[in-house]
Amino acid sequence: MGSQHEENEKTSSNDDAPQQDAASIADVSVEVSTVDHMLQKLRRKFRKTRRKPKGLKRLLAYLLNIPHIAVITTAVVFVVVVIIWSLLWVFIFRRESNTGVYFAGMFRVAQVEFIPEYRQAESHEFASMANKIQHVVSNVYKMSSLSKLYKQTVISDLSNNNKGGVLVHFWMVFVVPRLKRPAMCDECIGAIFRDSVHTSLRNRSSVGYLLGLPVDIDSILINSVQRSDYTSSVTGSQCVDKLYANLPGARVPLNVFSSWGGVSCQMKLTGVPGFLIRLTITSFHIEPSDCVNDALVVYDALLPMRGRILHRLCEPTSSSFSIVTTSNVMLLSFRMTNGNKSFRGHFEAIAEEICMSQIETRLEPEITGQIYSPFYPSMLPPQCSCTWKFKTPKSALGVALHFQNYVLKPKDLKGCDSGWWKVNEMIFCGSYVGHRTVFRIADHSPDVEFRCSSRNSVQPFQASYSSYNVSQPCPESHFLCNSGLCVEKSRRCDGLDDCQDESDEVLCSRPTKNCGGNRPLHPLFVCNGETDCHDGRDEVNCTQETTCSAIRYQCRSGSCILKKNAKCDDVPDCQDHSDEVDCACGRPSPLKRVGSSKVTERIVGGVNSGEGKWPWQVSLHFAGSLYCGASVLSSDWLISAAHCFSKERFSDPRYWSAHLGMLTQGSAKYVAEIQRIVVHEYYNAYNAFDYDIALLQLKKSWPPSLSPLVQPVCLPSSSHTVTESHRCWVTGWGYRSEDNKVLPSVLQEAEVSILSQNDCKKIHSLVSPRMLCAGVPSGERDACNGDSGGPLSCQAPGGGRWFLIGIVSWGVGCGRENLPGVYTRVNKFTSWIYSHIS
Ligand code: 4AZ
Questions:
Q1: How far is Cα 434 from Cα 406, in angstroms, rounded to an integer?
Q2: pLDDT, average across residues 328-356
Q3: Looking at residue 423, what is its pLDDT?
Q4: Which of 396, 452, 456, 599 meets the CB 3.0–4.6 Å disulfide criterion with 384?
């Protein structure tokens, strides 16, 4: 077109001025003649038989010609569609491709005096201060690289702060194209604000001036939040209550009920400046659903900031406990769905604890007193510190700290997440365990410093202290365990974990069956269900009542009998017959023995199983794919390994499904949704998967009609002992070998032997008393990735029931020679399991 216009211009500039009008007429005529010429051409081409119409009439006639009407209509429709599409794109799709990204933040404005009017968002004083702060925050982001995405800041609260000045809580909204969303990281948003303050820091203090506003850089915290958190607070569609504890120590009651209406409420608690807040929960009646439906989240802030979660409560409770903040504000965020749910508790302002004391121990090794974690028995806040300066009466005496369920270990490269300890100049990390320990300090005047080091609130601890003789820590007749406990020397190598860390059972020769000697028979051989002495003396009077210990079966009445494996052996041994109740378990009745073809070696040395052979075997699927195994414990509970659910993404029960009564993948008799996942509270991924056990509650019980293809496995009693005549099998759909990462579709089974704990520890140094090793020396039969959480099932001798002895946990590779697999030792968790499922 451009070139054609230029040509026209060239033509007219060559003509004389007086000729201009004529020229333009000529131009028109040229154009008409051109159209006419074209029409003629076209007509000649398409309508050779018709007579030629003249001028405009001809054009009209041409346009009204039926085929031309069709072409024109199509063109018009096309143009209209294009216009509508463009409008839709501009107003709907383009708008949809943008999304709001929401942040909650807080910082301290220093050198500004807090006035009570700031508590009222409707007050003039609040509005004027909030406007000023809003302007400053907006300015920071409008000047930043995110200026195009920044939408607005809303100041939600101004509160008095323990460090002085005013603590500001605010919301921030960005409107971001969907594709750019991942770039909106919490760190980046926080860093922009911190950078601005940083450039204006003065006098080496932490306070910088933004448009004259003194902002404490150390107090800046910004977290992304859910849109619903923002809308429910800002638009006020849900309840937001503000409560104050104006007098230290005065309790302010908190009661929330959701009788049929359902509740989604936030309570903002503020205490006297300089004090902390202690929330006491006396009861919380909700439906357990793993925080999906009902939950209470307690924040160490006034807005729901992820980095400031003190505690999440999603299980019903009627035993009272308390949580302490690190400053004078707390937020309670309730979610209670329809039903008769309720929360009862109170809060109060409490003074910060000055946790420092000088302690003198006595000459005698008896317990002299107790030290407690700060705010005991409240839970420990994320920040706290304590110093205990001990002194013993003699330089030969050290200090022993006796803990109930806590252990100190030298700090390694990983951080401490359950308490940081400095003993003289050595650093230790604390962690929670399920047994007693004694921490011995070989110094007569040690300084012990403790600092809270967890992200959330954690269990409190207490320790009894005493003196001890550094050169002889235990009494003459006792043995010093690695756990710090002293146990009688006669208990060494008795097959029992008296030390709680099995250190009394290392370097022991295999127990001998001294049946005729004058020394008593090794306790492991007594009443273990196997005739170890040819005259059978080890298996007599097994149901007589005796003192209780870890290897004696405890009847429901509380009395103990010698018989170790009394549970569900079809013989009533306890006087109350309690050993034979709840025994509908561990008796598979295979339908057809397909598989077991020794020719096709699968997983690590396994073979195809048969329909109904392992009716407790479960295939656990995460987001639709096999991820772990599990075992059926009852009509609504499964048991698996904690490590299957440990990462945050894997802890949401909604992504999991349990496939029951299945031989070949895809042919489950019942696919269950998961209601909640209970991971053992002491599970520790950093400590070689110690306490690797988890329970899963099903949303709906499997129907009894599925029996016998679906059936529970028997749970061993805590005294259960596996003997040589037990046969043990590991089953699962995991990898066939370390190198062949193909998952078999048919359930695989492999027979393995249980190693002695001594042999197991020689191979895997990190084995704890809560683990056992099983395999074959050649390594050819083993569990592998994908089998985790699945069962190691052992059958009682003489074709008895099958018990869940182990849960597939970890190993070094798969099927390697002399590297047996490691399993969770289930009988160590019997009471923990019953405490959750019954
Ligand atoms: C796993 O990662 C796994 N060979 C399970 C068992 C073993 C190794 C790894 C034992 O699930």
A1: 8
A2: 93
A3: 97
A4: 452
Provide the mean pLDDT of the chain: 88
Q: Is the pLDDT of residue 619 over 70?
A: yes
Q: How far, in Å, CA of 738 to CA of 725, rounded?
A: 30
Q: Indicate which residue's Cα is closest to atom 4 of ligand 1.
A: 814
* Most confident of the following: 489-493, 616-620, 736-740: 616-620
User: Quick one: average pLDDT of 411-440?
Assistant: 93
Ligand 1 proximity of 808 Cβ (cutoff 6 Å): yes
CB neighbour burial string for 214-249, b if at least 16 within 10 angstroms, e if fewer: bbbbebbbbbbbeeebbebbeeeeeebeeebbeeee
788 is catalytic: yes
Q: Which of 809, 812, 817, 824 has the most ligand 1 atoms within 8 A of CB, as the residue to mutate?
A: 809
Q: Which atom of ligand 1 is nearest to the CA of 788?
A: 11
For residue 618, pLDDT over 60 is answered with yes
In one-letter notation, the amino acid at residue 627 is: Y
pTM for the whole thing? 0.83
Collapsing DSSP to helix, strand or coil, 94 comes out as helix
Task: Give the mean pLDDT of 587-594.
Answer: 71
The answer, yes or no, to whether any atom of ligand 1 lies below 6 A from the CB of 787, is yes
Residue nearest to atom 11 of ligand 1 (CA): 785
- The helices-and-strands tally (H runs, E runs) of the chain is 10, 42
User: 428, 793, 390: which is closest to 585 by C-alpha?
Assistant: 793
- Per-residue model confidence (pLDDT) at position 530: 87
Q: Which residue has the higher pLDDT, 70 or 433?
A: 433
Ligand 1 pocket member 692 (CB < 6 A): no
Q: Is 573 a catalytic residue?
A: no
Q: Determine the atom of ligand 1 nearest the C-alpha atom of 821.
A: 10
Q: Which amino acid is at 462?
A: Q
pLDDT attached to residue 204: 76
User: Which residue in 692, 720, 726, 787 is the catalytic one?
Assistant: 692
Q: What percent of the chain has pLDDT over 70?
A: 88
Q: What is the mean pLDDT of residues 129-134?
A: 97
**Catalytic residue list contains 159:** no
pLDDT at residue 46 above 60? no
CA distance 581 to 566: 11
SS3 for 135-189 is HHHHHHHHCCCCCCCEEEEEEEEEEECCCCCEEEEEEEEEEEEHHHHHHCCHHHH
Mean pLDDT of 424-437: 95
Q: Is 784 in the pocket of ligand 1 (CB under 6 A)?
A: yes
Going from the Cα of 679 to the center of ligand 1, the distance in angstroms, rounded, reads 19
Contact 391, 444 (CB under 8 A): yes
- Dist. CA 779 → ligand 1 center (Å): 13
Q: How far apart are CA 451 and CA 384, in angstroms?
A: 6
Residue/partner pairs of 546-553 with CB below 8 Å, 24 or more apart: 549/496, 550/496, 550/497, 550/718, 550/719, 551/495, 551/496, 551/523, 551/524, 551/719, 551/721, 552/719, 553/579, 553/717, 553/719
